[in-house]
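Continuing the series of single-chain predictions for the mutant panel. This is the parent chain; the variants come on the following pages.
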Amino acid sequence: MNVELRHLRALVAIGDEGTITGAALALHMSQPALSRTLEQLESRLGTRLVERTTRRLTLTEAGRRLWEHAHRILDQVDTALAEAVAGTQPRSIRVVFAWSALGSHTVPLLRAWRDRHPDMPVHVRRVDDPEAAVRRGEADVAFLRAEPTPDPCLASCSLIREQRMAAVPEDHPLAQRSAVRLADLAGRPVVLCSTASTTRADLWPDAQRPPTFQVPGVDEWLTTIATGEAVGVTTAGIGYNHPHPGIRYLPLSDAAPVTVYMVWPSSPSHPATDAFRRLVQQQLVSSSD
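Parent structure:
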């Protein structure tokens, strides 16, 4: 089948923007031309990739899978072209996370990498869905605090287990304790972060489940707790990376720890991915000794 890069770029734009209008603007082309390109792609593949409604476009299951692969393919092509123009020096290693990377291990890891590989920078950034960023080729390595979704395109390993922490306002009666239990939080609203939560109501026994509500991001989560509207449950890494003058983080003595995972493409998207992965594992093993 004769599928060209322009077909993949059209599908990526449509999947990202959700409308022909938005995708056409992103690609700097007319809407009729974009529609024809999509029709060509579907015709050559012999399958529908996009469901069209009067207001919005939705990727079919086949379209969603190809959209993710297309992201990765186009990123690799663009990277190869950029390196060909700039010389042989590869781009930065792109590392993503949802909230706090590796907590207290993050800075020592990045310093160790810089000492060993001074000519190979690492670019670290927060994203709402780190696993999807790796799957789409937008990142080379991701750190997760949830078990990775089984995917033959991704490899993963567990790294460390982080203690769960309660986050309470500094003037809360619990703030003076050295540790708390889940039951201590059961009668209070618990705020969850929609983009990076490691907590659900079923962390508590059925008879003790507290009311919960979501906020869209870490800043809202911290503010909600600091102002006394709710308490929160998180992990040690979050408490380390996000200290707040209005919040006290306390160990949860009866809650299971959270496993931190590392995820990368099965076929590494960067030549230094394996070296970076090995250093991560070495650093965390040495820090736990």
